[in-house]
Each structure stands twice: as structure tokens, then as C-alpha cells.
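Listing S7. Sequence submitted for prediction.
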Amino acid sequence: MSKDSPMKRMTHAVQAGLSMSEVSCEATVALQLQECDALLRRPATHHTELTTCIAGLVAMKETPKQLPLDHGYARKMAEGLVELPLVSIDLNTVQTNIIIFNLKPGAPEKAAFLRNLWERHGVLMTAFFGGIRAVTHYDVGSADCAYALRAVEDCLQLGAAQSNGEVCGKAKADLHHRVNGSLKDYE
């Protein structure tokens, strides 16, 4: 670790042409390193404090490199969502790793959609100011986004096949066939 003060390191970083967010992150990492070093030297450091400190350091060092990928994954997922007939999304609003979209009339109720998304596919999205919020992050890659997009499509189709909370007739058979590949074991 450099012996320079965080302010001096920030000055050097600006002179080197780093963006303000990169500079801010660099300074924060330097301060966190100093704080973690002090924690390690304390005899009564709690395991949780140390674990939190290390996790924070990893996040601050790795996140700036990961963000452009996360933003790209979010954009690609949003471009897939815009193709779904029951989804409304403004692609101009997808500038970061956060995607906000709405369900159009004819789509399932938002709470049921989110519950099915989680229970059937393990995909977590949340209700957000009248819309739905999805976030890409360090543990989410291109294949995960493609999977989430298929899960959204499946849950939208499941919702469209429901009538008063019950899957009905031909729609139930079609859904069973699509999910399971055949009508074998169909009730």
C-alpha cells in the first residue's frame, strides 16, 4: 500500500485521468485498507467485523471493474424485455445495472408474477414504485440474464393462462407440455 495520504492519492489519480467515481473509489479503498489494518492489530477484533471489512474491501476493489459488464448485461436484458408483448420498458432509462419495467394490461398481477418468478425459477425481482426492479451485479452473468428473461416470459405466459387464480383447460395442458416437453403425467 502506498504511504501517500488519500488526498495525495486522489490528486495523482485525477492527474492520471481517472474519472471522479474511480478517484472516489480509490480513496475509499485506501481509507478502508487503513481501517482494516487497524482492526487486524486490535486483539479483540470480532470475527464479524473482520469478515465485513474484508467483504467491503473486495467489493470496493472489484466492483469498479465489474460495473461496465453489469451495465451491459442490464442493457441486453432490457432489450429482451422490450420484445415481450406484456412488458413496458423505456430503454432510454437503462443506463446502469438497474432495470425498471412495468407489466401491461393482460399480464398477471404484479405480486403473483413476482411470486411465480421466485418460486418457479429462483429469480428475484422486486416491486418498485409501481413497476418491477431487476438488478445485475457481481454474481450475475450473461447466462443468468438469459435465464431470467426466459423466466419472465414463462411467468407472463403462466399468468395469461390463469383465470381467477386457476390455470384452466387447454392453457394448462399447453403450459405443462412446454415446461415438461410432453403431456406424460399430465393430470
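Caption to Listing S7: primary sequence and predicted C-alpha cells for the chain studied. The first helix runs from residue 6 to 15. Residues 50 and 147 are 35 Å apart (CA to CA).
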